[in-house]
Specification:
Helix content: 25-40%
Number of strands: 2
Structural class: mainly alpha
Distance between the termini: 67 Å
Length: 157
């Protein structure tokens, strides 16, 4: 057997069916035969009524893609997508955050600085502190990061 011959020489392809083809009477023939003046007028009317491209295609006996292509070539005005979108989530209203300045801080308020001290909007966190720490729980998790070494005895080994 040579490299150019198919490996399944004896295998035959199944007979083709015309199930997936558009019938010639429905516009599957030549491009010029698909769209006549009457079909174009009906397309424009159905398009203006807001029907989906699939529904227009069924009524005209052409595919949805044929409708889209012809509408584009005719310069028909685009329409919003018929796909149902999820309604927008309600916008969360930010509760007004209190601006804590240096004079507002106490032993019970988080002293984590927020922003650049050179700017007007500089402030401190001000949330209640974690027990025995100068910061709230959130800022403690950022401030106190382990070194990754568990003991000095492991370094010597």
């Amino acid at each position: 057997m040579s490299d150019k011959q198919p490996k399944n020489k004896g295998a035959q392809l199944p007979p083709s069916t015309d199930a997936g083809k558009v019938p010639a009477s429905a516009g599957g023939g030549e491009q010029g035969a698909m769209w006549n003046d009457e079909k174009i007028a009906r397309l424009k009317k159905l398009w203006s009524e807001g029907l989906t491209t699939g529904e227009i295609g069924k009524r005209l006996g052409v595919s949805k893609n044929a409708v889209v292509g012809k509408a584009h070539r005719l310069g028909l005005k685009g329409r919003p997508s018929p796909i149902k979108r999820q309604p927008n989530k309600p916008v969360e209203v930010k509760k007004e955050t209190r601006v804590f300045t240096l004079t507002d801080l106490s032993a019970q308020t988080c002293r984590w600085p927020i922003g650049d001290p050179k700017h007007e909007d500089f402030r401190f966190c001000g949330k209640p502190v974690a027990a025995g720490k100068p910061y709230c729980g959130e800022h403690c998790s950022v401030a106190y990061v382990g070194s990754g070494k568990s003991s000095r005895s492991e370094d010597a080994a």
